[in-house]
Write a structure and sequence with these properties.
Blueprint lengths: L7 H13 L11 H12 L9 H10 L4
Length: 66
């Protein structure tokens, strides 16, 4: 089955890429699945490019593993 342009898998890849983009954090530092679920619940889309950056990073901060 072909992957749709925006899917749970593409959203997960987006989150991981964003978290690791600067090289200062790893996906292992965050609960990635919780970030994906919360962002999807708020935005009602798998297209996380449409989510405001500030909103995304607030969600990510809540799901930082301590």
């Amino acid at each position: 089955m072909p992957q749709t342009p925006h899917s749970p898998e593409s959203a997960t890849a987006y989150v991981i890429a964003a978290l690791e983009a600067k090289g200062t954090a790893s996906r292992d530092d965050f609960d990635v699945s919780a970030i994906v679920a919360r962002t999807h619940a708020l935005s009602e889309t798998w297209d996380f490019d449409s989510v405001h950056s500030e909103t995304f990073w607030k969600i990510a901060a809540v799901h930082l593993k301590l």
